[in-house]
């Protein structure tokens, strides 16, 4: 019993140290992340603070058949992308790269992942569930979602990505998006670049640091 108590006490001490290290690694020369999508106020309107684009409300169905909407991500930092299950090269590579971020940050309750299918006619709930299993995705952390074509296009526009409907297909971006707790876009990353993946890792830490350091919030 004493040994069990020792390891329990040690764990209580070690876990905060590990979390502190993760939050502060790479933040010694801390700079807040930019907020993308600055909006210009109408003529004659003076704003006290800069007005930024926020991702509009959205609602989808995930791999468990559950509704996933903006409220699902309330008070969450979100990494989002667009894909489709039948894609044979680009999408699997993109989601394998996203999996590396998920594996490193998935234990942080504040961080969630959102992958939106651009092929809603074929990517049914069972298809998405099988696809999500390929990446070891826990449904409460990494949601693979589907919706109507119009909802998908609207979501792409909301995330400031070039998503467009072409006949029976929807063209989509190969980028990752970093969204903060206020549904503002804080970063856009090329999923095919190792350097961009490292930048996403670093900027996730910076964004976590912003929320855990009261003097740094934007």
Q: What does the model show?
A:
With 218 residues, this protein is an alpha+beta fold. It has one domain (38-216): Glutaredoxin. Helix content is 35%, strand content 22%. The protein contains five helices and eleven strands, in the order αβββββαβαβαββββα. Mean pLDDT is 82; it is low at 1-18.
- Count of runs of 4 or more consecutive helical residues: 5
Biggest β-sheet description? 7 strands, mixed
What structural class should be given to the helix and strand makeup?
A: alpha+beta
What is the global morphology?
Answer: globular
Number of strands: 11
Share of helical residues = 25-40%
- Could you tell me the mean pLDDT? 82
Q: In the CATH hierarchy, what is the architecture at level 2?
A: 3-Layer(aba) Sandwich
Percentage beta strand: 15-25%
The low-confidence parts are 1-18
What distance lies between the first and last C-alpha atoms, to the nearest angstrom?
A: 47 Å
Helix and strand succession?
A: HEEEEEHEHEHEEEEH
Radius of gyration: 19 Å
The CATH topology turns out to be: Glutaredoxin
Total individual domains: 1
State the fourth-level CATH superfamily. Answer: Glutaredoxin
Strand order of the largest sheet: 4-3-7-6-5-10-11
What CATH first level would be assigned? Alpha Beta
């Amino acid at each position: 019993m004493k040994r069990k108590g020792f390891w329990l006490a040690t764990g209580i001490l070690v876990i905060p140290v590990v979390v502190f290290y993760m939050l502060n690694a790479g933040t010694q020369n801390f700079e807040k992340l930019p907020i993308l999508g600055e909006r210009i106020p109408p003529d004659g309107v003076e704003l006290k603070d800069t007005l930024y684009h926020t991702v509009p409300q959205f609602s989808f169905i995930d791999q468990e058949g559950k509704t996933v909407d903006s409220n699902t991500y309330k008070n969450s930092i979100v990494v989002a992308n667009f894909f489709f299950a039948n894609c044979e090269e680009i999408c699997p590579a993109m989601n394998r790269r996203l999996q590396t971020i998920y594996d490193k940050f998935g234990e942080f309750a504040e961080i969630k992942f959102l992958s939106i299918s651009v092929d809603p006619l074929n990517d049914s709930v069972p298809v998405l569930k099988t696809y999500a299993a390929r990446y070891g995705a826990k449904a409460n952390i990494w949601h693979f979602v589907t919706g109507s074509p119009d909802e998908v296009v609207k979501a792409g526009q909301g995330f400031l990505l070039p998503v467009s409907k072409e006949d029976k297909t929807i063209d989509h971006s190969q980028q990752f998006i970093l969204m903060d707790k206020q549904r503002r876009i804080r970063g856009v990353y090329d999923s095919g670049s190792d350097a961009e993946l490292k930048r996403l890792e670093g900027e996730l830490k910076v964004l976590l640091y912003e929320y855990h350091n009261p003097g740094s919030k934007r």
